[in-house]
What does this fold into?
Amino acid sequence: MKQQIITSFDVGSSFVRCIIAKRAQVDDAVHILGVGMVPAEGMRRGAVVDVSDAANAIAAAANAAEEMSGEQISDAIVSVSGVGITIESVRGVIAVGKADGEVTEDDVSRVIASAQSVAVPTNKEIIHMIPRSFRLDDQENIKDPLGLKGVRLEVEAVVIGAPKNAVTNLVSAMERADISVSDYVIESLAAAEAVLTKKQRELGVALVNLGASTTSVAVYEEGEILHTAVIPVGADFITHDLAIGLRTTIDVAEKVKISYGSALYGDIKRTDEIDLHEVDPKEDGSVRHDHVIEIVTARLEEVFELVRKELVEIEKDKLLPAGVVLTGGGANLVHVVDFAKETLQLPVQIGYAEGLLGMMDHVDDPSHATAVGLVMWQDQYGDERDLQSDGVVGSASHVAQSTFGAVKKMVGRFLP
It folds into this structure.
């Protein structure tokens, strides 16, 4: 039976978001019961830099969600973000154990363990181990080798890792807030869980999460994760540029960005001005509106050129039929879709989380995609993880000793 209460935390550079959800027995659907969102502290570029401050923000978000839901949080699934996320292809190979050559669950577990034993840098933690396909002797592209007969079993998989100190510090902050971590998921994969359809994954799509201080990218093709990366530039950089360019405080620059920022000039004329006193009573004077747009578009161009560079690296530039789906707080910027279309030369749309019931109006924003995706991830794969003391897909504290049944359920999301 699937667990009843699910709690997720998206600990970002700008905000900490917490969602408490429950699978209702009446309709067998997951309902959002409570949402907490507070400004982040102790974070920089997606990583914890002050455990105490981060823990206080996590606790505050948890308290807000608990008050709204009436539930108590003990453990949670948490997103891992920040620079240093890596993806690597690995292979494992074993000899089939049974004399008659029939592939058993033990064989599958052993071959996946063989792939995971590939040397990983000492400063990296394995967050996800995702089998793509199996090979049995000369037969390739097998999705489920169980019951087939052969001599040599191989697996092709991808390993997604994160800096070990980033994971350790995140866990420390969660534990200081009296919340244990049940699992980790890379931020972009969690957001993809909430906003991408199966058809998009099959055709080829890029999930671009425009966060505060980083932009994460996840590319899917033929239903599989093809590439993931974190770019160390985000929406807060626009705010910083505005503060410098307009000679204002960060708070005023953020208000200007939200109220007047745009990725296109549109009908804005050179003579149009913004009265800063209307933005903040402590300010006086005015600034040209087109100057604001110039600053915004300059930084956006940098972000999307770096995204395009990632697509060029994997030879998918202008070659993703399902285009790009934008999530994160930066996706709320006016005309950002049109700007991204022009820069990337691909179809672009905003990704809104779907698939849950309850207080969806509290998370009806692309900035909540990661937190919602974590809930969906835990609902899908949490029980399989709970059944195993050692799991294959997921946090690095687990090693590849899972039975094939659990493995197949957990990795099914990635296989066509």
About this structure: Confidence is low (pLDDT under 50) at residues 385-416. The first strand starts at residue 5 and ends at 11.
